[in-house]
Here is the input.
Amino acid sequence: MAENAIEQYRKFKEQEAALFVRAKADLMAKYDDLAKQFEALGIDMPNRSKALSVVATGLKRQRDPQRPCPYCNVTGHDGRLHRNQGDRKRAFTSDELEAYARQGRHSA
Here is the structure.
């Protein structure tokens, strides 16, 4: 039974990857058509390679690893890590920072 589930999962992942490639190609074809229409109107569209990189990697916020957190005053994370603390943001304890480091959310 477990082997059957593993095989089904592997096939599902292969189908998912193939579907993603097809969906990406369809979207890029639509992008090219829209870019031509905007160009005909004199409106400049963003570069297609930049659009492809956004699709491939996703948009991510960058942070300066040397800049200290405004709440903890330590480097390794920024203020976004405190977003779940609500209106009463405070510095993390050493145990909390270790837990976040294990999750990959804080560089110790």
